[in-house]
User: What shape does this take?
Amino acid sequence: MEADFERAVARHRHELLVHCYRMLGSVHDAEDAVQETLLRAWRATDRFDPTRASLRTWLYRIATNACLTALESRSSRPLPSSVGPAFDDPDAPLVPNLDVPWLTPIPGDPEASAVERSRLRLALVAALQLLPARQRAALILREALDLPASEVGESLGMTTAAVNSALQRARATLARTGVDPEAAVEPPAEQRAVVDRYVEAFERADVPAITALLADDIVLEMPPNINWYAGRDDYAGFMRRVYRLRGTGWRTEPIWANGEAGFVAYVDGRLHTLQVLTVAGGRVTRTSVFQAPEVFAAFGLVGEG
Assistant: This one.
């Protein structure tokens, strides 16, 4: 029976991981939630009624409640641009805040569906973290399973009216952040072409060429540092600082994260950062730079390059 259960749930494991990641903002936490989901499901197999819900819907409900349990004892994971105002001095000292559990990226597959890649965008996942846990759960369940509000309420122990109110408030919050949950991502080939041009300029330490690829409202953020910058001028100023302090001995390797193209940066042969770039209209609109061991481990990056 255990083997039958494993086979039945195996095809849902990846989407459960994506679902839990969108709820929790951490690959590590999402993996723990999936394990908890499967354990709860195994213990409750005798109560599963396929005439009331599909196995997929049943697993999503269990996963959502496992995430809500996890969120009772931990904070949501933001990005710096959600926490405080932009810095206006590219040469300001970096100010780390290690008390904040920052959002971390998830390895992505450029062959994933456009819908999955859109739902995993860093900006969207970060915006979801601003929602109270049950609003977030209602919105994600409604979107992922296309369930009526009454069934979402049944899953979350909420009335239909409460679900509709939660959905309305959640959508209003996302609208205020400027993030459209329905927006499509650029096709992978177009993303990678822009990022490849960025990488060529990055490895040459060519700040004017980097700047030419940026949108006017570009955002640069680097958790765990609370410093973040908006606009091409401050971005360029920060990049000049990087090359002044770190030198120009850079090499890179391409990666995909959150449905977006990016790269791993090495300086003088040492692993330095993982950078995820958001591309829209042929320009880079956001660069999210990560250095946490948790991120490197999630992407299988260790030691020297």
Notes: Residues 23 and 67 are 7 Å apart (CA to CA).
